[in-house]
Amino acid sequence: VGLLDSDDPAEVAAAAAQNEGSISIQMEEIRNHPKVEVRKEHYEKATVYDPPNVFSVFIPSFTVLFAFFVVPILSVELIREREEGTLRRLVSAPIGRSSIVVGKILAFLLVVILQVAIVFGVANLAFGMPLGDSPLGLLILTLAMGFAATALGLMLAGLSKSRSQANSLGLMVVFGIGVLGGCFPLGPVLLSRTGGFLGMISKLTPQAHALEGYRIILVEGGGVVDVLPQVGVLLAMGIVFFLIARWRFKF
Fold first, then answer.
1. What's the Cα-to-Cα distance from 43 to each of 6, 40, 46, 47, 48, rounded to whole Å?
2. Which regions of the chain does DSSP assign to beta strands (E)?
3. Beta carbons of 131 and 124 less than 8 angstroms apart
4. Which of 184, 202, 207 is nearest to 192 (CA)?
5. pTM, 2 dp
6. 3-state secondary structure of 128
7. Structural element, H or E, at residue 142
8. What digits encode the pLDDT tens for the residues 130-170?
9. Angle 109-115-117 (CA atoms, 0-180°, nearest 5)?
């Protein structure tokens, strides 16, 4: 900056040499004792995180949401048949009431199974979404989810007084518990796995347990035994819904 222009050139040169020597000593100290250590490793020794296929996260969520759309459809259909007298005519025939209800459940259960099979099949062929190593586990889990969904539809049919009420309640239930169950994912972590209050509430919905089961099979390579807890919860919920429907539904 010109402060040493009037000084003795020999002194200026000596000061410059002293500065260079001091800097050299400090640089050597940094090389010998670095503040940050850099260590090189071969890739085969490193832990590699393989993120799940993005479609394995989002496709099951929307598939479970769509599967529960049988709830308003089934409840509206049952009330329509009751209002038109179709159910009364069936009851007058030599057919037990349990057979009629089981027939309704099986019909809509088949719809859920076909829906899941088509969506997962297209996702696998078009987007490379893995289907896991347990087709039997997928089938059992889907059956349990379908039973819970259809039984929930029967329960709403028993609690509703009209088709419009059943449709409105059904859509509220589908989207309301769908959100709480994690059918609208904001990231790769399931809502039921986040912990806290929302995670606890999420576990009270059938959608959360269906999504947990699909995550175990599709992403984590689980099998039938691994999803038995989720299957058990879905069946238990379905039985509760069915018992309420049997108590409240009028033919």
1. 60, 10, 5, 8, 8
2. none
3. yes
4. 202
5. 0.76
6. coil
7. helix 135-159
8. 898 899 999 999 999 999 999 999 899 888 888 899 899 89
9. 105
